[in-house]
Amino acid sequence: MQVVILSGGKGTRLYPLTKTIPKCLVSILDKPFFTYQIELLKKNNIFDIVLCVGTFSEQIINEYGDGKKYGVSIRYSLEEPDNLLGTGGALKNASELLNDSFFVMYGDSYLPIDFAKVCDAFKNSNKKALMTIYKNKNEFDKSNVSISGDLVTKYDKSDNKGLEYIDYGLLVLKKQVLEIIPSDKFVNLDLLIQMLIVSKELRSFIVNTRFYEIGSNEGISDFTNYIKSLANSK
After folding, report:
1. With CB atoms counted within 10 Å of each terminal CB, which end of the chain scores lower, N or C?
2. Band of the pLDDT at 39, cuts 50, 70, 90?
């Protein structure tokens, strides 16, 4: 499977740390965060990476190039830093690079799960999309998802009343769903997700392992401690 990583944002929550570098190049124990993501993907036999970049894209390209020295293939979908397209618009902008189906994750997420199991659930669902979810109960962030059976029935970041699950940060999409996203316009993935819910095309997949992120200072601290714990357990 191919993975698309959305790494075009400005990372304003981490200012001043990300005033001069992109979020995915934030150093964690002397190694850029994106390198950790690459290593995780390789462990899951994923080597085809499409990186959607905008802010400080030249730094990312200079560091990682085509990915060969890291044992992967990296191709880039570029956005203008002053005219970012949003998470949905970034996917639409990358359409020409995408396979018929693909994973989508974020440039600040570390997801220690079995990607193959997620892929199998998607293929067996006969749905156009799959969202991984975690029974969060507002622990790591505000819960934003409810389900009925295997389907996602609600996705709401503003009103979490009665919601127990959170979007884990890994989607699987069929390329055809991007047809409903307008070109060259700012669109967030929320719009696409809502349309998939209405059409009953969004399968859920419950994950039991917590996610990590570096989109906040607290997240960086948690992820750093996680990496240290892995090193100490060897």
Report:
1. C
2. very high
Alpha carbon distance 225, 220 (integer Å) = 9
Phi and psi dihedrals of 30, rounded to 5? 70, 25
Distances (CA, A) of 177 to 158, 195, 219, 222: 24, 10, 31, 34
Q: Which CATH number fits domain 2-233: 3.10.450.50, 1.10.40.30, 3.90.550.10, 3.30.420.40?
A: 3.90.550.10
HSE-CB at 46 with a 13 A cutoff on CA atoms is 23
How far are the Cα atoms of 39, 84, 106, 112, 185 from residue 209, in angstroms, in the given order?
Answer: 18, 32, 17, 7, 35
Q: Is 36 left (phi over 0), alpha (psi -120 to 50) or beta?
A: alpha
Residue (of 162, 156, 165, 140) closest to 193 by Cα position = 156
Is residue 16 a contact partner of residue 217, using CB atoms and an 8 Å limit? no
Tokens 């029935």 belong to: 153
Closest of 132, 136, 131, 110 to residue 38, by C-alpha:
110
Global pTM value? 0.94
- Residue 33 token pair: 């965060």
